[in-house]
Design a protein that fits this description.
This protein is α/β, with parallel strands linked by helices. It is built from 9 helices and 14 strands. Strands 2-10-9-8-5-3-4 form a 7-stranded mixed β-sheet. It has a 3-stranded antiparallel β-sheet with strand order 11-12-14. α1 crosses α6, α3 packs across α4 and α7 packs parallel to α9. The radius of gyration is 21 Å and the shape is globular. The structure holds pyridoxal-5'-phosphate. The site of pyridoxal-5'-phosphate has 11 residues, from α3. It is an enzyme of class 2 (transferase). Pathway: Amino-acid biosynthesis; L-serine biosynthesis; L-serine from 3-phospho-D-glycerate: step 2/3. GO terms for molecular function: transaminase activity. Belongs to the class-V pyridoxal-phosphate-dependent aminotransferase family. SerC subfamily.
């Protein structure tokens, strides 16, 4: 079977040329006679892979010197605990709850201190980003937390909240490397790589150096201290080596695409194609406020559950996979991450037009 257009929210499509290159190197990585999977993480070959990956992501995101880049494990969900355990010096944090993932992070943090929900969009099923221009940030908050792109609902912070000088912590899992960012606006940026960057199992944490201290909550395991991994250059224990290797290839692919400015243009073009059609369709409609629309995750509905199910089934038969919305919201969702080609979105829109004609 040839490759399908995979609209999964994650794990998601990777660039085909990255997969092909990895396949070519599968049994003999550049004359080493072994796969990266079989290689010591202390070897020279792996040291180069890790160093290059770090150099390339630094270049792509213009990460300043005073930020560390850590390649960690445990999924995004482990960070929901690691963040408060490492950053809650005053045992106070403010959370902006714009979806299930932000809510989970908010709930987990409550185990470690006083956690304030300073804004939320739960009143309208997380279909918008609340106004964050004048938040009541707690004077003693250790940080302000956001989920920058809400994978399930398809909303994105177009402007970062004014945190009144407190470090901003952002889960960027579903918008990682999709557009340029000003790293200096954050204390900590982190994300799982399984959407835009590589195979599940790697979490990248970009953290300002002054936030990495030994002053963590009592009982914080060694493996859950940022300092452990920062001091060891992400080699405190055996890292997810193969995953990091694929991430490195995706960084090089992004550089070849022209970097984050260019990838943003491509992402905007893809998203516009789909949103413009949703805005003119008589059958399908987008579910979030226009001003807050994500470039990466596009949820939509027909308003009829049976028709939604028929659409998902027939789309799959046409080679357009994983269009079912998240189980908590229903409907459809097209995730159009960096690796989704324009042709994939065009094929989806063409199919939607045909389905609309046949079913209206
Ligand atoms: N945060 C966001 C924005 C996500 O989209 C996801 C997963 O889809 C998660 C967190 C959870 O990631 P993990 O399964 O790696 O814990």
């Amino acid at each position: 079977m040839s490759r399908v257009y995979n609209f999964s929210a994650g794990p998601a499509m990777l660039p085909e040329e990255v997969l092909k290159e990895a396949a070519e190197e599968m049994t003999d990585y550049r004359g080493t006679g072994m796969s990266v999977m079989e290689m010591s993480h202390r070897s020279q070959a792996f040291a180069s892979i890790l160093n290059e990956a770090e150099t390339d992501i630094r270049e792509l995101m213009h990460i300043p010197e005073n930020y560390k880049v850590l390649f960690l494990q445990g999924g995004v969900s482990l960070q929901f605990a690691m963040i408060p355990m490492n950053l809650m010096k005053n045992k106070v944090a403010d959370y902006i709850v714009t979806g299930q993932w932000a809510k989970k992070a908010y709930q987990e943090a409550q185990k470690y201190g006083r956690v304030n929900k300073i804004a939320s969009s739960e009143d309208k099923t997380f279909s918008y980003i609340p106004d964050c221009s004048d938040l009541s940030v707690s004077p003693d908050a250790d940080y302000v937390y956001i989920c920058e792109n809400n994978t399930i609902y398809g909303t994105k912070f177009r402007e970062l909240p004014d945190t009144k000088g407190k470090p901003l912590v952002a889960d960027v899992s579903s918008c990682f490397l999709s557009e340029p960012v000003d790293v200096t606006k954050y204390g900590l940026i982190y994300g799982g790589v399984q959407k835009n960057i590589g195979p599940a199992g790697v979490v990248i944490v970009i953290i300002r150096e002054d936030l990495i201290t030994e002053d963590v909550l009592p009982g914080t395991p060694t493996m859950m201290q940022y300092k452990t991994h920062a001091d060891a250059g992400s080699l405190y224990n055996t890292p997810p080596a193969y995953g990091i290797y694929i991430c490195g290839k995706v960084f090089k692919w992004l550089k070849k695409q022209g970097g984050l400015e260019e990838i943003k243009k491509k992402n905007e073009k893809k998203a516009k194609l789909l949103y413009d059609y949703l805005d003119e369709s008589c059958l399908f409609k987008g579910t979030v406020e226009k001003k807050d629309r994500s470039l990466m995750n596009v949820p939509f509905v027909t308003g009829n559950e049976e028709l939604d199910a028929k659409f998902v089934k027939e789309a799959k038969e046409a080679g357009l996979e994983n269009l079912k919305g998240h189980r908590s919201v229903g409907g459809m969702r097209a995730s159009i991450y960096n690796a989704m080609p324009y042709e994939g979105v065009q094929a989806l829109v063409d199919f939607m037009k045909k389905f609309e004609k046949e079913n209206l």
